[in-house]
Amino acid sequence: MLPNTSQQPSKSSDFSHIHLLIIEDLPDNMELLKLDLQDQLPGVKIAEASDGVEALEKLRAQDFSVVICDVLLPRMDGFEVLRQTRQIPHRDTLPFLFLSALNQEEAIKKGLALGAVDYVTKPYDEEILAYKVRNLAQLKFLQDELRRTQEELERANRFLAELNDEKNQMLRLLSHDLRSPLSGIRGLARILQTDESGNPETVREFAQLIENSITNILPIIDELTFMSHFSAGQLIKKQCDLEQLLQNVLNLLDPLISKKNIQLRTELFSLSLYADCGKLLQMLHSLILPMVENARPQSTLRISAETPSSSTVVVRIENDATAISDATIAELQRGTSNNTRSFSSLEMSFRLARLIIQLHQGTLNIEKSGDNVTIRLSLPADVTSES
Among 76, 102, 124, where does a domain finish? Predict the structure, then answer.
């Protein structure tokens, strides 16, 4: 929270959030200015430059809250420093205050015309100067917040456009995949309608074919329903227990895990993740199910979660013996496919999982070394954990 600029600077206030660059070639003037500002703004951080060239090096290397610059400097005057500062990325709105003994009207006009926000002549009033620095620092803070918000909106718009393209592509392919089994069912129905033999064996055979086709259709309908949820890219976020979500998926898959005699190794802990819990559950199921389905009997499935930083969760799903081909892994790594080719169930599951992770602004990666396949997903979010 920025200090209230409507009140006089208090000796007990903390101004450590303000980082000044003072450009002054005379050591005595530099020390006096520093002492005055540190007295009025306790905790303020101050960087020094004794000429324009040195100042530009510091300005290119780091950002500052406010720049206080003399006009008459060795090697490069203050006007040129300001002119070149405005050409440095993200320094175009950096508050620049001239503090100079040069009080000619033309010099003041020139400084303001170049983009300085203020021009103070020496000798100065230390309290007034402190007020100006505080106000300019607050202006810089608000400008930075606005810039960050605009950048986040631009990233969000780009992502939603990419997400919409991905969704439309998948819907086209899913719709295409419906045609084949439906055409088969219609053909079998016509044959049964025109078959006058009434052979029970033929009827049973055709009925089995119809049932198989319907079995193939149902997952496609499920995928279409699932994809409709992404139409607006909306998330319903709340606190989710990641360990419980993973355990729920493993409980659902326990019969298949037991049937294949897969050795399950987990390294989980209580972790609260702010996310869309329903979509996370679907995502985890979409990733773990194919790993179990394609695992060879008596292989080992390892699942772990960790927090390498306070705002990132990483989940690893690894199996040491899978039947997933190198070609399929390559398709999954690319995350793209030919628009005219249908997806396998494994590819579809992975793409849906990727969409959910993208909605949460996370990343998904899959790697294969020999028969060992590792899926790594990273979710940036507000996280609290308990050991």
Answer: 124
pLDDT value for 5: 39
Prior bond of 123 cis (ω within 30°): yes
pLDDT per residue over 252-281, tens digit each? 889 889 999 999 999 877 788 888 888 888
How far, in Å, CA of 219 to CA of 59, rounded?
Answer: 58
Q: 63, 89, 124: which is the final residue of a domain? A: 124
Question: pLDDT exceeding 70 applies to what percent of the chain?
Answer: 80
Question: What is the SS3 assignment for 66?
Answer: strand
Q: What is the pLDDT of residues 172-200, one digit of tens each?
A: 666 666 766 777 777 777 777 776 666 77
Q: What CATH number did the domain enclosing 53 receive?
A: 3.40.50.2300
CATH of the domain at 352: 3.30.565.10
State how far the Cα of 34 lies from the Cα of 51, in Å rounded to an integer. Answer: 16
Domain count, the chain: 2
Task: Please tell me the least confidently modeled range out of 32-46, 209-223, 338-352.
Answer: 338-352
Q: CB-hemisphere CA count at 13 Å for 121? A: 8
- Taking the CA atoms of 108, 111, 112 and 114 in sequence, report the sign of the dihedral they define: positive
Read off the tokens for 203: 């009827």
Q: Which residue's entry shows tokens 């976020």?
A: 237
Task: Classify strands 118-121 and 96-100 as parallel, antiparallel or unpaired.
Answer: parallel
